[in-house]
Amino acid sequence: MRSAPTRRPPGAARSGALALVAGLSATALLGLGATPASAAEGDVAIDVYSINDFHGRLETTSSTAGAAVISGAFQQAKAENPNSTLISAGDNIGASTFTSLSQQDEPTLDALNAMGVSVSTLGNHEFDQGRDDVDGRVVPASDFPYISANLYEKGTKEHAYAAYDVQDIDGVRVAFVGATTEALPSS
């Protein structure tokens, strides 16, 4: 997915510009062969690439790209535009392939870190082994934050996880807001 160049307001400091990406896209990694649009001087072209429902699919098969292919495609895109970021809409693990599941998803978490995922929303499958597993194993093993604006501590209005993550991409502040499916069990 390609984003439009972000124009800084006249006289505004670079850090003053804020681009808001409202939610992590539920699309697969797309547009890697696209030609970037010309940007006016002072504009910053930011490319946001997204994966979702990865489910520990490390190997390339006839129906899935696999970690190495996704990583290679993203690295190529980042070489073309250093202001590219890779995000995940969740379900990185859980309902995983045997290779990942049999090793408690460690290879998947390592692969996502190596790919350069910068932020991920929490999918329902991240919770397949319970919240203690997410907090005690998944989050600490990840080099990127997990976010969700609609998960709360039970019986409160306090967010269980950060609702959003703000990143500086070439002087432009970009906010990523996560949302988790309402189908997540509440027990």
UniProtKB/TrEMBL annotation:
Signal sequence, renumbered to the chain: 1-39
Q: Which GO terms of type biological process are on file? A: nucleotide catabolic process
GO molecular-function terms, A-Z: 5'-nucleotidase activity; endonuclease activity; UDP-sugar diphosphatase activity
**What keywords would UniProt list here?**
Endonuclease, Hydrolase, Nuclease, Signal
- GO cellular component terms attached to this protein's record: outer membrane-bounded periplasmic space
This protein is called Endonuclease YhcR
Q: What is the lineage of its organism?
A: Bacteria, Bacillati, Actinomycetota, Actinomycetes, Micrococcales
This chain is encoded by the gene named: yhcR
